[in-house]
Design goal:
Elements lengths: L4 E7 L3 H14 L3 E5 L5 E5 L9 E10 L2 E10 L9 H19 L2
Antiparallel strand pairs: 1-5, 2-3, 3-4, 4-5
Helix pairs in contact: 1-2
Length: about 110
């Protein structure tokens, strides 16, 4: 049973600005940065555990696009954690919140 959720969005910001915004959101939310590419085009992170959710493994891939950048975000239950029936719905809610935070950080 997969609980992976993903989404993409376009922003007028360049890859460097997007990477900076994503790292700022990760730090502000006290998530753990697992790694990133030298140019910031790929950032892997782990959300923190909450009362209702296990940690979520996340990935953000930013690619240059006409008039800015495209951002692809993915969230899934951390490896080794039990999965539950409502994980997909909870993960989608967490992903939507994360997208909003990143878009706000880019303003």
């Amino acid at each position: 049973m997969s609980a992976e959720v993903n989404t993409t969005f376009h922003t007028p910001a360049d890859v460097t600005s997007v990477a900076s915004a994503i790292q700022r959101v990760i730090a502000d939310n006290k998530h753990m940065l697992l790694g990133n590419s030298a140019d910031g085009s790929q950032i892997d992170f782990l959300t923190r555990k909450t009362m209702l959710n296990w940690e979520l493994k996340g990935s953000a891939v930013t690619t240059p696009a006409s008039g800015g950048s495209n951002v692809a975000l993915t969230l899934d239950v951390q490896d080794g954690r039990p999965r539950a029936l409502l994980d997909g719905m909870k993960n989608q809610k967490a992903l939507d919140k994360l997208v909003g935070q990143i878009q706000d950080a880019l303003k």
